[in-house]
Amino acid sequence: MSDPICPLCERPIPAEVKQSLHHLIPKLKGGKGGPTVLLHHICHREIHATLTEAELARDYATVEALRAHPRLQKFVAWVKKRPPGFLSKVPGGRRKR
């Protein structure tokens, strides 16, 4: 069976790599039980370092919208050159809710 593919960076997510589920609509904004996508942990951290919960709910509730965000486009271009197990500190903390 092949590894799942991260919808943000389009790299495989091997079983031994840190991964997490991203709620396309944040749980705090009514997304509990809503659609989720499996991401590399580093990709998930970058989404939440870039966008607030309100921005995610209002404007970025699809993978396509996330991939169109300018900062996330730069991140994806950078992380695509890294191996699937690559981990790094994401600069800055989570954006405020």
What's the number of helices?
Answer: 4
Report the end-to-end length measured between terminal Cα atoms: 38 Å
Order of helices and strands: EEHHHH
Which runs of at least 5 residues are low in confidence (pLDDT < 50)? Answer: none
Largest sheet features: 2 strands, antiparallel
Task: Please count the beta strands (DSSP E, at least 2 residues each).
Answer: 2
- How many discrete structural domains? 1
Alpha-beta content class? alpha+beta
Oligomer: single chain
Strand content: 5-15%
The gross shape turns out to be globular
Mean pLDDT: 89
The percentage helix is: 25-40%
Structural write-up:
By secondary structure, this protein is α+β, with helices and mostly antiparallel strands. The chain has one domain (1-97). It contains 4 helices and 2 strands. The chain has helices spanning 41-50, 53-59, 63-68, 70-79, and strands at 19-23, 36-40. It has a two-stranded antiparallel ribbon with strand order 1-2. Helix 1 packs antiparallel against helix 4 (70-79).
